[in-house]
Fold each of these.
Amino acid sequence: FAHVCAGARVGAGAVLGQNVYVGPGVSVGRGCKVQNNVSVYEGVTLEDDVFVGPSAVFTNVRTPRAHVVRRGEFAPTLVRRHATIGANATVVCGVTLEEGAFVAAGAVVTKDVPAFAVVKGVPARVTGYACRCGEMLAGKPRARRFACARCGATYAVAKGGGLAPDAAGAPAR
């Protein structure tokens, strides 16, 4: 019970749940998991290994009106590899979720999310960081380095407020 429109691209190993809609021109990367009741509208790109939780929402027009045609005004949304979007979260068009970003269930994302940042709330705000393996990283808010208790990967603070894998500690696979 999934609907994939002409012109959409779904990568190898991607899983689409029940009642998923993939619009024309949408790219769903390899290994993505799009759970039940998600519409991925034109203008959205999901890179490889992205998880989209049940009933998550994407938009594609900033100022919609039923009586005004805005098909040429889709604002692109980019979800980079290894990102997670929790159940019932909303991602407003025109944002980028950087690599490994983690959007909590029910959050409303209105601006870009840095690499490996965890965002929660309405509107979503950075509350911490997550490892590529999905484990929340322990550390004080002003910490410059983080280590994963589960897989041992290490990260350092990068430009833009996100994290980058340390050269010494490769991220989880």
Amino acid sequence: TGRKILPALTAATGQMADAIKGARRSDDSILTITAGSAFAVHWLVPRLGRFSDLHPHYQLRFVATTKLVDLARSDIDLGIRLGTGTWPDVIAERLVGQQAFPVCAPVVGRSLSQPSDLLRVPVLFDEGTSFSWDLWLEKAGLSNAPPLSGPSFTDPLLAFSAALAGQGVMLGWSLLVA
């Protein structure tokens, strides 16, 4: 019975979502943007004054997350993500280039002189980033290295704070560590 009614329920749920989305967008003066917190803090927020001066009729609303959002089924108007720009069904435009590299406090850095030294210190994982330790290790000539270990964080600002506190090495990127 469930399989018989699934197509109708799926269609009805989609229609309800579209109706709700249409009702939410009744105020075209609100521009809702989603971006990761680190990007918002270090790049986007410092530029808001200029945007508001140029576009005073918009009221800005921010949703801080690194999760991909279905823009067609949400009240989000614009998503800014760190990555390669190859997301399905999305028009992507590069805003700023980034390089990924290990970062740590000097107390940890003193014991590191080559990439393989990362195998013996805690590594801090940023769950929301598209930068991969595996890819970095491969480019550093350590493609067959055992898995790195250490705590993981859902927000890069937390991982960066842990790195600053000497708790391990983070794979940072230009904008965050500048």
Amino acid sequence: MLRTKAIRKIFLTTLTLFILLTVFTITNYKNENVLRTNLEIEDIAGLKTNVIYLLNDEGLLVQDRVLLDGSSVEEKIEKLLINLIEGSTCSFADGLSKVIPKGTIIKNVMVGNKYVTIDFSKELLNISEDKEKSMITAIVYSVMDLDDFLGVSILVEGKSLEEYPNSKEKINKILDKSIGINKNYDIT
């Protein structure tokens, strides 16, 4: 009788510890449902990946990551924008496409007082009407996620871009994330 009580206590104690360990493991397990890529190497050799916004198959802007090298912020912004130009050598996952028209040249990038000014060549205007807002949004969001910038000004051949190229809808001279992303209104 004493022996069966001792075995029962050992069994209950072991079972209780097993249940507690299982519950503790499950509650502390973080399943982020994130596809890990080889670009997530921030802890190795001090390299850092940066966010870039690309179009998916549904025409929505989605985040991806890109490895940028460069000693100055201006160089990093220029390399980030080159990755957004169609036909550039950087490749991304299937289903993601670049938003800046092929042949566009980044003439100058200036950073001052937490504001960025980017001067593009006139090829930037060779964009279809259905992609022009996505292009501007991708540029603004990608650049602003690079650092704590307050706004982005876009120039074309040295002149401020005051309206979308095709729809002629007015835009601010200084753009920030308040322009919104993936705005799709279905009002019936």
